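Sanity check

After download, print the first record. It should look like this:
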Amino acid sequence: MNTRKLLSICSVIGVLTLTQFSPVYANTATTNATAQTTHQSRLLPLEGGSNFRDLGGYQTTDHKIVRSGMLFRSGAMANLTAKDEAYLNQHNFKTVVDLRSQEELDLFPNQWVKHNSDINYVNYQYSIKDIQSSLKSKDVQNYGAGNFYLSIADRLQPQLKLYFAELLHKNTPLVVNCSAGQDRTGFASAMLLSALGVPRDVIIEDYLLSTQYRNPKNEMGSVDLKKAAKTNDFAKMMLHYTDNGKATDAKPLITQDGTPYISIAFAQIEKQYGSVENYLERAIGVDQKDIAKLRSLYLQ
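Expected structure tokens:
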């Protein structure tokens, strides 16, 4: 049966240039990482999908492999066709963890989960107004909207708790999504792959694939953003990221000096917590025992 878990958090898609960060990752990853991400097509063949892909197939530092067909990530599923839904249902998905705000859900509801009562729908309720208010503070203005990556580890804590709880309860196959499937979803996926022991360069390479696999037009469906912006704050915000309400091509997720945005999040975690493992244990409640369980469930 559908279940919807409602709580509160905020997020936004950011673009930035941070000169204080040295490029911790070049525009291309190592040969090993590239081989892993290009060896097979991860993107699901959906007519109305965007960035819906399998996290399986990556090799860990101890030479195990992330199981395929269990862990997925995606952009908004606002434009899925009946054929797409039938295809996805063949995968027997148990859970959708939707990281979007209430304003996003109002604009672009997930019809697939409404049509399939067997899917457990998990969402942490919040308003996009929260992040818009925080971006007006003096400190945030120093970095623009991209400051989101400096605080993403704090902002997504409640959502990550729900995400990892579903994973630990083996409510899989599972797909986690936001609007573009790159920022909030990219961070959640990076935390999971880190917990599973996938090398950092491979995780970053997976993150960067969103530029290639996104279909912004499908993320927007048939919504008239200009009209919606009169009453919806997310629609109003999206007008600044589109061509007068029309979808534009996905932009690379790197700063002007070549640093992937996700590397900024990793740097902040290591500065504040010392390591991703410490962050997961202290902020998310995922300890070494839980990590061992995740690896037993999702590695082969």
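If your output differs, re-run the checksum step. Summary of this record's structure: The longest strand covers residues 71-74.
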